[in-house]
Design brief:
mainly alpha; elongated
Length: 397
């Protein structure tokens, strides 16, 4: 019953996380586009009112005119009906942390700890997890505070810091756990930017405007800087969110480096759209991102398994499956923490083993399965399954 309830918690938190994430990222992408697409106001009276820039747009059968005031309107009160973009960010992070707790903290032995990387007690692993998330934000925030106005250097150092954390996490956690922690750390930076800088800065500016005081523009400048960082974090974080479905990435021997390349490709592609909103079309940016991914895919391609030698009997493969796989991949899993087989894949019958032979050979050979090697499969057994598949995955001896 506990595993069943955890599955429901996983499902509902994942659904909420997806919905809130769409709202947050959609708003972020829209405002970055809006900010970079602004043109000087055409009406002199608008400029006198404090309009910094405007954008006319058409959508859904209507026409819109968005205007930006850097320090609020001049000669008129600031409306009380202000829309604040914050709860979509907070909800995304809180639901993500809920998923982290349900999957990686409660299930630390299966999903977070890999004894071949570092033998950790579950409580120790969870403590390290929390420390990385909090510590990542502290270091990032210190860098931002120390390098105000030096955006290029700051960007390079932040990227280097994320790469370092990526490598360190791969020395501590399972590959899948390391990937998700890089994403969670970056997402924590993003939401902390909103909570500690963007929203408080906007509130101070609103208070000054309504008090009739001269508005300090520094909070707005800092808020804009942090918003720009958030938009470049977005594509790498989204890739990490979906990467757990593709063990060929994180289960690779150089998984940490694969993540670096994919993050860099995401930043290059995002930069193309940021500049395009300003009217600067630089096709080499997305071309470079796509080229990086193409080269990576070629380098990651699995090497053909030698199908020579004595034929592998299906009875030998079936014995390995029974001993190492069936605890989870059964209609009624016996492994604690599993109410249903992962991804619905079962090996209860020979036909089911044959049906999933390709994926089984791939995931077992990569080292991804069994999860955390809970069933202690050996390298020879992994090779046995890979060779059997290379020989045609015959179900009859």
């Amino acid at each position: 019953m506990e595993a069943y309830l955890l599955d429901w918690a996983n499902l509902l938190l994942r659904w909420l996380h997806l919905i809130a994430g769409i709202a947050w990222i959609g708003a972020s992408f829209y405002f970055v586009m809006l900010d970079n697409s602004l043109r000087p106001p055409k009406k002199p009276e608008d400029a006198k009112r404090g309009v910094f820039g405007e954008l006319w747009a058409v959508h859904g059968g209507g026409f819109y005119c968005s205007q930006k005031f850097l320090t609020g309107p001049k000669g008129e009160p600031l409306t009380d009906d202000l829309h604040w973009s914050k709860w979509e960010a907070y909800t995304t992070w809180m639901s993500g942390m809920g998923l982290m707790a349900v999957i990686y903290w409660v299930g630390a032995s299966s999903y977070l700890i890999d004894p071949k990387v570092m033998a950790l007690a579950p409580a120790t692993a969870v403590g390290i997890s929390i420390a990385f998330l909090a510590g990542g934000w502290v270091v990032y925030d210190l860098l931002c505070r120390q390098l105000v106005g030096r955006d290029n250097l700051l960007g390079a150092l932040v990227f280097a810091f994320v790469v370092l954390c990526d490598w360190l996490l791969h020395q501590v956690f399972s590959a899948r756990g390391a990937y998700i922690h890089v994403g969670a750390m970056m997402a924590t930076m993003m939401v902390a930017n909103v909570f500690f800088h963007i929203i408080p800065g906007q509130k101070r500016m609103v208070e000054q405007i309504r008090a009739g005081q001269e508005v300090d523009t520094r909070p707005g400048i800092i808020g804009k800087q942090r918003s720009v960082h958030n938009t470049y974090f977005t594509l790498p974080v989204l890739f990490i969110m979906i990467s757990n479905h593709y063990p060929m990435t994180y289960a690779n021997a150089n998984g940490w480096l694969i993540l670096v390349v994919m993050m860099l490709a995401g930043v290059l592609i995002r930069q193309f759209f940021v500049l395009r909103h300003r009217g600067q079309v630089k096709w080499w940016l997305p071309a470079s991102g796509v080229a990086l991914i193409a080269v990576l895919a070629a380098l990651m391609a699995p090497r053909p398994v030698d199908a020579g030698g004595a034929p592998v009997a299906f009875t030998a493969v079936h014995a390995v499956v029974e001993q190492r796989c069936i605890a989870c991949h059964s209609a009624h899993p016996s492994q604690p923490g599993f109410a249903q087989p992962p991804k619905g894949v079962t090996f209860d019958t020979s036909a089911q083993i044959g049906q999933h032979a390709a994926k089984m050979a791939e995931t077992v050979a990569s080292g991804y399965m069994p999860l955390g090697n809970l069933t202690h499969i050996t390298d020879d057994e992994r090779k046995l399954i890979a060779t059997w598949y290379a020989q045609g995955a015959k179900l009859a001896n």
